[in-house]
Every structure is written in structure tokens, then in C-alpha cells.
Write a structure and sequence with these properties.
The structure holds two protein chains of two kinds. Chain A is mainly α. In chain A, 45% of the residues lie in helices and 5% in strands. In chain A, helix 12 (235-253) packs across helix 14 (281-293) and helix 14 packs across helix 24. The longest helix of chain A is centred in the middle third of the chain and has 19 residues, at 235-253. The chains are: A mainly alpha, B mainly alpha. At the A-B interface, helix 2, helix 3, helix 4, helix 7 and helix 9 of A face helix 3, helix 6, helix 7, helix 10 and helix 11 of B.
């Protein structure tokens, strides 16, 4: 197969640059090795091809409408060039200027990053998904359009990429073929961060052209700033939903659950992801049970910016990132809490614990704690009695990139699992070397036209392979196996993967969070809290 | 070339190199403070460096002093520099060539140190026996460096040219750097083969520079080697070969920059927050929210 060249990004506007077949992808262990029962990769219809820009790989994540005329194409190309310059200016991008410039200036094109990239490996080493493919194109465009004073050196370093509609429409889609897991950055001997370059590319599209996936922007951050949550849930509805969860799980668990709201002066503001309320209410209930059983002084907030901890701005847009992060902390400040504790949501951790840290000056600098350490402190405090034999089934741990690789929070959750789960086993690799679930960087909430198919087959493939290998000694469906994934977006991705491959029926795989395992092991919870075998 | 020209040329090359490198380092250091973007493993917290853990694992970490180790980051960096561990783990086919090239460079740098030592011994009038020992060591280092360096540089040139994973990404600069390095190693190797004692000649050259000798003389082979080396030294600061310095910024400045917000950083951030951005998208200019 001919190698895809960098300048192909701008050529043959309507032709796909790459296509995938199941046979090219990294093989999975049995019983998924023969692709039997696995749907063929979903193709676009002619009408979809006509309506949307679909010149990348046959998948559409972003529903970018085809331009109406040449003027519209040229307008967006002009905006892209303007955006390139703004991305390299202090006034417009002080937030990430130094890391971006270091990454743009020091790549040796050694391709070491490719060996670490789960998307590239899973695709069967498809050139389109190589981390340096998109980064090097971007780098050459930066040189060509922003470096006025060194034309000679620019030419020597390569400026052979033409900027046109084909290039920008493809780059836009391609920027959402990366989970921002940053394994590439870990591998790079120079410290270049292709995950960051991808994120900055997304930022350029969003902040200059106004292009961003609707799931992240209009139905994501914009909706969250307007009503309180990308789920569309408003504060009053959130309170009602929590009441329902309290009632439902009080009955199921045989223990009264009561979630406090707006307690001024509480020690802890717990900041869940509202997506858990809808998709994984057992996580919400579990935290309430644990906090009450430990006798903590805690509260939730019904403030419009205080009840949903997600921050999709982390994935694509500094303006939205900062607005939402400031809102979260302002809600905490109103309640005069001593600290904010995250729920089980990976990107919420990264956004609020570290990335937005330098924006939270003065009295906004309220201490923030991660869920893993918070739960570990309770589990080992002696305040709650546990019976680990109640968790005597195979368990493995998925390490959410944003908590583990990005924040170095590795051991607290493991200490809990080693104590409470007699059959806990690790995946390989794990910890800071883990593979992304494939839903990172916002991909888990993006469906596009047929993007979900790409997400589970390509982005999530290495992780699925890891999970299967972790349970290779007990592969059949008769033994139910729990994949502990303490992150909402990871759980959503696992749910999609398991459904797609019928992994519950074929392998007995199901997924849940860490808090549920803790509650399941509580002596005072008489009924099983984790219902294995039910689709979550 | 007359002796004084060597003196002037060497001083000029050194001056230009140091000036441009200083300019680049200062420009890196003067870039604005940025948002945190750390990446584990950050080898700083005692007891956690073995698995890449951070202080964020500690319960209410803000209530206690952070226990850091200054040795672990140095060990991490040295291991990476000397063994290129991540290339070995993620790009095995490239690793032998990359290690050879870098080992060749390190040995040539070590040889420079020995030229200096030898020159100082000569100036000090050390016994000839001692000088001879150091010259022998120097010769071995140079020979090893040139051989290993030639293997690395030539191998990488061929890999870039013949392996499609690299050829489509390689530019004129990618090849020129390697060709120049190959020329440095090869010319050094050729000089070593010439009669006269290369190590002694280079040590005397160094002695002449130190003592501002106006009558420095070298053989034709050594002259070619020195001139090619000077060309490389002048070219280096303009390329990504400065990563031996910028690693400090990418690692200590970004990946390992996990310090919580302090007063000094807060002041710098506030100065930046008043800058006016002019992004064009609708949400970027809604009233009062365009600053980040």
C-alpha cells in the first residue's frame, strides 16, 4: 500500500484519504479474533457524502456541512490563517503558548510517538492516524504562514502543504481522531506533545472559525453555561433526580440515603458529573451512602454552575474551559466549603485540579481533592466496616488518562481494590502507562454520523484487547468480570464497546465505578449493590 | 591558513555560538507563564517515583509540606539521555542508530574535555609520561566516538531515505544535520588515520587557543575536520538539535511543572489576564468573557 504523504491533506478535495477494513485492524483475542458477529464498519450513504465534508476516512464525527461556494471556502481558509497567528501570540494564547511552541519547534520526526499511540497501533499502523501526521502538517502550515523572518529556513524545513478547503476540513476531522491521551508525549525523547498540538488545533477551529462538535459546544459547554449541564438538566431537575436516586437506591440497598443540598459551611462540596445521574446513578448513590456512613460534613450545590462537574472546554476551547472552571469554584465559594471533591469523572479532575489551577487566584483558590484519595481516606479510616468477601469476583482496573497519566494519581484506588476485591488483577500496561479507553478527548460523547463505529473499533480497540487479556484465564461468560473504571466518559466508552462486541454475553464483562465496589463491600449494606449481568 | 586566523576564527565561532544559544535560552525563559500541563511520571515526590505518583495522591495535600527528591529527576534525565529508554521501548528499530549517533556525540564532547585537560597539562609542564597516558586515552575516545558516530549518522541517513515511515517526513534540514554530523565524525576519523598523532595535534591546538598563540598550525586533515566542526557548531543553534538545552524547558518547565499556584505565579497570571484577545468566533467575544 502506498504511503500517505503529508501534502495529500490538500489534494483531491472530495476523495477520502484513507479507508479501513476490519482485517487491517489489530486482531483481538478470542472469541473476537474472527470478526464473526461483528458488524461491518458502517459506511456513509451517498446523501451523507453529498451533504457533509467526508474526505478523511469515511467517518464523520463533526457533521461539517460542505461549503456552498468558493467564497465560503476562502473565508474559512483566511480565518484558519488568522487563527494560526493568534495561536502563536501572547495576547490570544498565553495559556498554552510555551508548551505549544516547544512542541512545534523540537520534533525530530523520529516517529517514536507512533509506537505509543493506541489509535495508530489499533488501526494497523494507518498513516493517517500517526501522531506526527497531523502534527507535522500543522507545523509546516505554521512555518509557512507565520514565520515571516526566516523564509530560507522555512523552505529548508518544509513548507509544501497547500492551505485550502480540503486541508482545513480534513484537519478539522483529523483533530478528532485523537483521544488526547498523551501517551505520545510520554514516549517522546524531546518532550514534544502531539496531544497538545491536537488540542490547540481544535482550539483554533473553535475560537477562530467557530467550529466545534455540537456535542462538546452547543450541546456541551454552551448548554452547561446556560442551564447548568450538557445533559440539559437544570438545577431544580437535578435536585429532583437526586431525590429519585436516593429513594430508588434506599430501597435497593436497604439503607436510607439522603443527599444534602446547599449546606453553607459544610466541609466538602461534592461535584459529580451530571451524566452519572442519567447513565450511572449507582455511582451517585454510592457516594451518598459512603459520605453519610463516614459521618462527613458534605453537600451538593444547586447553583447553576455548581451541580455538574464536567468541563468539555478542556478538550477544545480555553474560553469555555475558564468560564466553566470559574463557575464551579464560585459556587463553592458561595457555600463557604473547606474543599471541593470531584466525583468519578476524569477530565473534571484534570480541568479543576491542575489545568485551571493558575486561573483560580485569590479567594477562588479553594482546595480541590481527587475522588480516589477521598475514598481511600474513608475506606481506611475505620469509620465503615467492610467485608471484602462480598466482592469476591474478578475485578480489573482501568486507569482514566486524566486522573492517572495526567495527574499521577495511581495508588489510592489500587490500595482500595487490593483491600476490598480479593480477585483484583491488573491490566498490562497499567498505571501511568495505561492505554486510553478510546473515549478520551471528548470522543465518548461524540457520535457524528457513523463515528461511534470508529470509536469502538479503532480508538477503543487496544483497551478492549487489554481487558480481554487481563481475564485471559477466565474468558467465558459464565464468570462475571468487573471492569472498574472510575470515570464517567470511560464508562460510557466501555458500555459502547461491550454493547458493540456483545461482550457481556460472550465474555461476562461489565463495567462500573470504584464507589460501587466500596458500597458493595460494606457490612451494613445487606443486599448486593452491584448487579452483575445487568447492562449498565 | 596562518596561525592567527585559527585563533580569531575559533574565538569568533565560540562567541557566536554562545551568543545565539544565550539568545535562544533567554527567549524560551521569557515566554509567558502558561496553564499547568504536567504529565506523569513526574519524578519528584519521595516514595512515589517508582510508579509515577504525585503529591496529589496525598489526603489534603495542601495541609502538609511536600517531600521531594532532587535526585530522581536527574536519574530520570540521565537514563533518558544515555540510554534513550523511551526510544528503546517504543521504536526499537530506530534505537540502535539513535544511540550510536548520540554516543558518538557524547564521546566527541568528552574528547574536547580531554583536549582541554591535555593542553592544561602541557602548559603546566606535566611529566611527558603523564601527558602520553592522557593522549592515549584521548585517542581511544576519539576513535570510538568517530566509529560509533559514523555508524549512527550514516545509518540514520539511510533509514530516513529508505524507510517510508521517515522519508515522507524528512526535509532538507533533516538530512543536512545528519550529513554535517557524519562529516564531523568522518573527518575526525580520517584525521586519526593520518600520521602525526591526531590527539596530540588537537591538544596542541587547544593549548594554542588558551595561550592566545598566534602561530597555531595543524595538518590539512585536521584543518578540514576543525572547519567542518565549526560549521556544525554555527548551524546547531538554529535547529532542533538544541533539544539538549530545551529539554530543560519541556521537562522542568512543562511536563514536570506541577507546582500549585503561588503568589508569584498569580501576579504573572493577573498581568496576562488583562491582555485583550481578539478571537473571531461568536462565543469568544461575548460581553466581558473574552479574557482567559
Amino acid at each position: 500500500m502506498k504511503k500517505l504523504k503529508l501534502n495529500a491533506i490538500s489534494q483531491k478535495e472530495k476523495e477520502q484519504l484513507a479507508s479501513l477494513t476490519l482485517d487491517e485492524l489489530v486482531p483481538l483475542p478470542p472469541p473476537y479474533d474472527k470478526n464473526e458477529g461483528v458488524p461491518e464498519l458502517k459506511k456513509l450513504t451517498p446523501e451523507q457524502r453529498e451533504r457533509y465534508a467526508c474526505n478523511l476516512d469515511g467517518y464523520i464525527a463533526l457533521n461539517l456541512p460542505a461549503p456552498e461556494n468558493k467564497e465560503e471556502e476562502e473565508k474559512y481558509v483566511g480565518l484558519f490563517i488568522a487563527g494560526l497567528k493568534k495561536l502563536l501570540s501572547k495576547e490570544n494564547n498565553w495559556t498554552f503558548l510555551q508548551p505549544l511552541l516547544l512542541s512545534l519547534e523540537h520534533c525530530a520526526q523520529c516517529q517514536t510517538c507512533s509506537g505509543a499511540c493506541p489509535v495508530y497501533i489499533a488501526s494497523g499502523n494507518n498513516e493517517l492516524y500517526r501522531p506526527t501526521y497531523r502534527a507535522e502538517i500543522f507545523r509546516r502550515l505554521v512555518r509557512k504562514y507565520t514565520r515571516k523572518n526566516s523564509k530560507l529556513f522555512s523552505k529548508l524545513d518544509g513548507t509544501d502543504i497547500e492551505l485550502n478547503w480540503a486541508a482545513i476540513s480534513r484537519l478539522y476531522e483529523l483533530s478528532y481522531r485523537c483521544t488526547l491521551c498523551r501517551r505520545c508525549a510520554q514516549a517522546c525523547p524531546m518532550g514534544v506533545d502531539n496531544g497538545l498540538i491536537t488540542r490547540e488545533l481544535r482550539k483554533l477551529f473553535s475560537q477562530e472559525l467557530g467550529w466545534a462538535p455540537s456535542e462538546l459546544h452547543e450541546k456541551g459547554t454552551v448548554l452547561q453555561l446556560k442551564v447548568g449541564s450538557p445533559t440539559g438538566m437544570k438545577p431544580a431537575v437535578a435536585v429532583d433526580n437526586y431525590d429519585f436516586i436516593d429513594d430508588d437506591f434506599s430501597e435497593a440497598a436497604g439503607i436510607a440515603i439522603d443527599t444534602p443540598w446547599d449546606k453553607e459551611g459544610a466541609d466538602i462540596l461534592l461535584l459529580h458529573s451530571a451524566g452519572d445521574v442519567i447513565s450511572f446513578p449507582e455511582s451517585i448513590a454510592a457516594f451518598s451512602i459512603i459520605c453519610n456512613a463516614a459521618g462527613l460534613s458534605w453537600t451538593l450545590s444547586s447553583d447553576i454552575s455548581g451541580f455538574d462537574g464536567v468541563n468539555y472546554g478542556l478538550f477544545y476551547d480555553d474560553i469555555q474551559l475558564s468560564k466553566i472552571a470559574l463557575g464551579h469554584v464560585q459556587s463553592a465559594r458561595k457555600l463557604k466549603v473547606k474543599k471541593i471533591v470531584m466525583g468519578e469523572c476524569g477530565h473534571e479532575h484534570k480541568a479543576l485540579l491542575t489545568v485551571a489551577d493558575r486561573l483560580l487566584t485569590g479567594d477562588l483558590n479553594i482546595p480541590r481533592e481527587n475522588a480516589m484519595t477521598f475514598l481511600e481516606n474513608i475506606v481506611f479510616s475505620g469509620k465503615i466496616k467492610f467485608d471484602p468477601s462480598k466482592n469476591n469476583f474478578p475485578v480489573t482496573l482501568h486507569d482514566p488518562c486524566n486522573i492517572v497519566r495526567n495527574l499521577g494519581i495511581v495508588e489510592p484506588q489500587r490500595r482500595i481494590l487490593r483491600y476490598l476485591c480479593p480477585q483484583f488483577r491488573e491490566m498490562a500496561p497499567h498505571g501511568v502507562d495505561n492505554y486510553c479507553c478510546g473515549g478520551g478527548g471528548g470522543l465518548s460523547v461524540i457520535s457524528g454520523i457513523n463515528f461511534s463505529c470508529w470509536k469502538v473499533n479503532v480508538a477503543g480497540r487496544m483497551k478492549f484487547k487489554q481487558v480481554l487479556e487481563a481475564f485471559a484465564d477466565i474468558p467465558g461468560p459464565e464468570i462475571k468480570k468487573y471492569v472498574c473504571a472510575p470515570c464517567l466518559n470511560c464508562k460510557l466508552q466501555f458500555r459502547d464497546i461491550f454493547r458493540y462486541f456483545h461482550a457481556q454475553e460472550k465474555s461476562g464483562l461489565y463495567c462500573g465505578g470504584l464507589a460501587e465496589l466500596i458500597v458493595n463491600a460494606m457490612v451494613d449494606i445487606k443486599k448486593p449493590f452491584i448487579n452483575r449481568g445487568e447492562d449498565s | 591558513m596562518t596561525g592567527i586566523v585559527w585563533l580569531i576564527l575559533t574565538i569568533c565561532v565560540a562567541f557566536i555560538f554562545v551568543t545565539i544559544m544565550a539568545y535562544r535560552v533567554i527567549s524560551f525563559a521569557h515566554r509567558p507563564v502558561h496553564l499547568r500541563w504536567e504529565l506523569a511520571p513526574v519524578p519528584r515526590d519521595k516514595g512515589k517515583t517508582g510508579y509515577g505518583g504525585s503529591y496529589l495522591e496525598d489526603f489534603e495535600w495542601w495541609q502538609k509540606p511536600r517531600k521531594i527528591t532532587r535526585i530522581a529527576p536527574v536519574v530520570y534525565m540521565l537514563r533518558e539521555i544515555l540510554t534513550m529508554k523511551s526510544v528503546c521501548e517504543n521504536n526499537r528499530s530506530l534505537w540502535p542508530l539513535s544511540v550510536s549517533l548520540h554516543a558518538g556525540i557524547y564521546l566527541i564532547i568528552l574528547a574536547l574535555v580531554f583536549y582541554l585537560i591535555n593542553a592544561l597539562l602541557m602548559i603546566a609542564g606535566a611529566p611527558q609520561g603523564v601527558i602520553d597516558v592522557f593522549l592515549t586515552i584521548t585517542a581511544v575516545i576519539v576513535a570510538a566516538g568517530c566509529i560509533i558516530g559514523i555508524i549512527g549518522a550514516a545509518g540514520l541517513i539511510l533509514k530516513r531515505a529508505l524507510d517510508a515511515d521517515y522519508s515522507s517526513y524528512s526535509t532538507f534540514s533533516s538530512y543536512f544535520k545528519l550529513v554535517l554530523l557524519l562529516a564531523v565524525f568522518a573527518s575526525g576519523g580520517i584525521s586519526m588515520l593520518m600520521p602525526g598523532g591526531y590527539a596530540l595535534e588537537m591538544s596542541r591546538f587547544t593549548e594554542g587557543i588558551i595561550t592566545l598563540e598566534t602561530n597555531i598550525s595543524v595538518s590539512v586533515a585536521s584543518a578540514v575536520h576543525i572547519l567542518i566542526s565549526f560549521l556544525f557548531v554555527l548551524y546547531l543553534p538554529f535547529t532542533n538539535m538544541v533539544h539538549f538545552i530545551t529539554k530543560h524547558f519541556t521537562y522542568y518547565g512543562v511536563r514536570w511543572n506541577d507546582k500549585p499556584l503561588d503568589g508569584k505565579t498569580a501576579v504573572r497570571v493577573k498581568e496576562l489576564q488583562v491582555l485583550k484577545s481578539n478571537w473571531s468566533a461568536g462565543h469568544a467575544s461575548e460581553g466581558g468573557h473574552e479574557k482567559t
